[in-house]
Batch of 2 targets.
Target 1
Amino acid sequence: MLSNHSGTEAEREGEPGFLTDSDELEAIREEAVAFIKDTVTEANARGVVVGLSGGIDSTLTANLAVQALGSERVLGLGLPAHTDADNVQEARTMAEGLGIEFREVDLRPLLDVFEDHVAAAVAPSGGRREIGNVAARLRMCALYYAANARSYLVCGTANRSELLLGYFTKYGDGGADLFPLGDLYKTEVQALAQHVGVPRRIIAKEPTADLWAGQTDAEDLGARYSDIDPVLRRVVDRSERVENAVEALDVDPETAETVAELYVGSLHKRAVPPTPGIDDRGGDGGGSHPLHLAAMANGL
Ligand SMILES: Nc1ncnc2c1ncn2[C@@H]1O[C@H](COP(=O)(O)OP(=O)(O)OC[C@H]2O[C@@H]([n+]3cccc(C(=O)O)c3)[C@H](O)[C@@H]2O)[C@@H](O)[C@H]1O
Ligand SMILES: Nc1ncnc2c1ncn2[C@@H]1O[C@H](COP(=O)(O)OP(=O)(O)OP(=O)(O)O)[C@@H](O)[C@H]1O
Ligand SMILES: [Mg+2]
């Protein structure tokens, strides 16, 4: 059910910590730009590739990447599948504005082959969510192909709201080498986009994953980010109980419960795949094993 709270998406009065101050926004811009630059340098990469949808997250990410690396070292890929061909023109316009190279690849033929051969054989009952996730994973393949071939990194576009809710395709748009917007809630992304001069029409667009016609984040999630973000901030960042958040904020209990459930239910999407932990060797996929860390420290 959609909550009927009527705040603006970019700010919510009375909720501390949400970005409205231009000095604060400027400091965040600088940090995100430095992060992209440092990550690319440390990886000895030549640049980054970004999937451009014509939406705010990818437009802002590409904008920050250009600020960090210069337009010569950023590649934009327009990768329309079934529903979003119209947005490719917007993505192209954004790329032209940033002065970056832009390539367009229609993924429909690949998706059709997948549906006819793989889906039909494995599970013909797969619906729009399953096929939409395949489109997101085909995009990931195209982005990594470009990264491999050019010694680039795949610059992901996920924001903190999406990451905490698990509102992304695991190893699809969730598969990337860095997430410059990953610490910022969607409402903060909107404020930062305004701060760096992303066109108003892009900021004003209804957020959509575009995995099927008419899909919107608000419909899928049951609420708008202006209601979701303050709940995440209290329940995740401040470890408050859901009831406390409901009482403090003007959100309905159902929305807050859903947000908390999505956060807990998507823990696996934010973790390294587990291993059994045989002989006490970690059980976390090796990511934090002392030998692994020592090898990294020694540059091995
Ligand atoms: N507890 C657990 N421990 C370990 N793994 C677990 C698991 N539960 C599920 N899994 C695995 O995760 C899979 C489900 O995850 P996943 O494949 O991602 O699929 P799922 O989360 O069901 O779908 C992705 C969601 O993200 C949305 N999305 C996708 C892409 C872009 C955007 C956007 O905002 O632009 C939004 C999309 O609309 C949909 O609501 C399961 O099939 C299973 O393999
Ligand atoms: N047609 C597309 N071409 C290239 N990349 C795409 C396309 N559709 C989605 N993506 C990639 O998947 C990412 C996730 O989509 P998402 O909808 O969350 O971001 P967005 O479209 O930039 O912003 P919004 O969430 O406001 O619609 C995009 O930022 C983009 O990198
Ligand atoms: Mg989108």
Target 2
Amino acid sequence: MNVLDKRSLGAGLGAAVLACAVLPVVLPPYWVYLAISAAISAVIMQSFGVIVGRAGVMSLCQMSFAAIGAWVVLRLNVAEAPGGFYLWLILGGLAAVPVGVAIGLPALRIRGVNLAVVTFGFAVSTDIVLNVNEFPGAKDLTMLDRPAPFDTDGGYFVFCVIVFTVLAVALGMIGKTRLGLSWYELRHSERSAAAHGISVARSKLAAFAISAFVAGIGGGLLVGQLSLVVPQNFAMGQSLALFAVAVMIGPHHPEGAVLGGIFGAIMGTIMEKVSLPQDFGGVLFGVGALLALRSGLSQTDLTRMRKREAGARKLLKAAEDKKTAEEQAAADGATVDGKAADGKSGTPAAPLVVPAAPRPAGDRTPLLTVTGMTVKFGEVVALDAVDLTVPEGGVVGLIGPNGAGKSTFIAAVSGFVGYQGAVELAGRPLDRLSPNKRATLGLRRTFQTTVIAPELTQYEYLTIGAGRRLTRAEADELLEFFGCPPGQVPVSIVDAGSRRLLDVAAAIAARPKVALLDEPAAGQSAAESLALGARLVAVPEAFGVSILLVEHDMELVQAVCEEVTVLDFGNVIASGPTGEVLEDPAVRAAYLGAADVPAS
Ligand SMILES: Nc1ncnc2c1ncn2[C@@H]1O[C@H](COP(=O)(O)OP(=O)(O)OP(=O)(O)O)[C@@H](O)[C@H]1O
């Protein structure tokens, strides 16, 4: 846990203790009652925080999960089950979990508005079922008695704050795990998550399960407040209003959940005081949610990000100063291929090195073997029986003009696109495996368009990529090796070129057998591209990772790749040692144009 987290935890616990000590004493009884409602709403908000705020799933049925928690608590109360309220509360949360998983299943195939409709459908069904079947104890008014010492309103407020705090700490800890970080990645790009070996299905279902548990606890707490609940307490309109608050405020951060809880609980009273209809509060939430959806970030995300960015800019500045000094020293001593580094903002020191000479292919063991790879998109034959091998410890290139099929090749080999043919990694056939399974077996890839969650720091992104918690030293070594900004710097202020390098670093962090890199030099200056080349050449020895490089930058390809395969209209038109292939008249004619090929 870093210093910032400890500070936030201290501040959060301090605020909770203060609220418990002061509010029940100074507030009039009605406001203490409202404070309980706010604390319970804050708990339910945390369930939105997991599924909406972190995983980015549009779930409109959280109050239905809360209703399940409430139903179980009341049922156990009527049955006078052993264990008492505390145990019943947990059982209510647990009872919501399988339902959460069941509702999460459609999320594996559909997303966005369609998924929102499915979850809303569940909310409507729950509404109907609840209205037809009363809650246990409603008929004969079997009320729930709050347990001592939390039996007074003031005491129950303290209990609700304790439950909120325990959940907030637990969710904060989950948020730091790879599962928690993967939710942020899912929110922005499911394919990136899969490429990092994350099971999208498992990760989404876990988010549904945990959010349902938290909502179930919230429902049970509501029973403790009201002694008996009615269907209207869990109406679908409630889910909608709280969803809007969640999107607007961002309850995946505790301060957002508290704010959301307070808004949710007191908005009605405020509207009444200013003589506006109560529903007007919902309209305000809806407008706020629309604004947040447009920017893609909630209010607490933005506030936290600004804070983090302010601190990180100093680190970036220091890195830039260091880079300038290194460039100056290098410029005093030598130039690279006659070109000067351009000092692009936000990119830290890229060592100005002359690229390593290509190494002979030798008789190395084939590590990745692709045979007869054919991919068709309708009438378009994107790949036609392509063979390619990446040897152990090798860096090989895949080049070709725009539309030749290079990205399709990477997509097919990594399991994102269906194909005919065979892919073997270290002798193991991969053809029936999903992208995330291929990734966990040691086949990583990067994308031409890099999508990295801006909420993450670079350290956190490396953790996702590595599939395990890296030591600070390991992470720093990787970032330095690839010339990325310091690890604490949030992705939100890292420039596009550096994000690509970070993506490569994250792929290598997992120490896969083979990394498929799709145009990693795009967005880099000429000097940065050459520096990247020197790094890629060193990757097999430094990290034990072989590389397939897709690039348009011929100087980089020539400097880095011992062998190269050329595609044109999905067909291999040449393959072999880089120098020979680039001299091939067929390659020059079909693809490069003589003027583009640097003399070797
Ligand atoms: N999802 C898709 N649906 C239909 N056609 C596709 C799809 N993806 C790629 N293609 C087609 O397959 C062919 C190969 O495209 P691909 O993106 O693999 O080429 P590329 O060599 O990576 O090009 P570039 O260098 O521009 O990235 C192109 O004709 C492209 O239009």
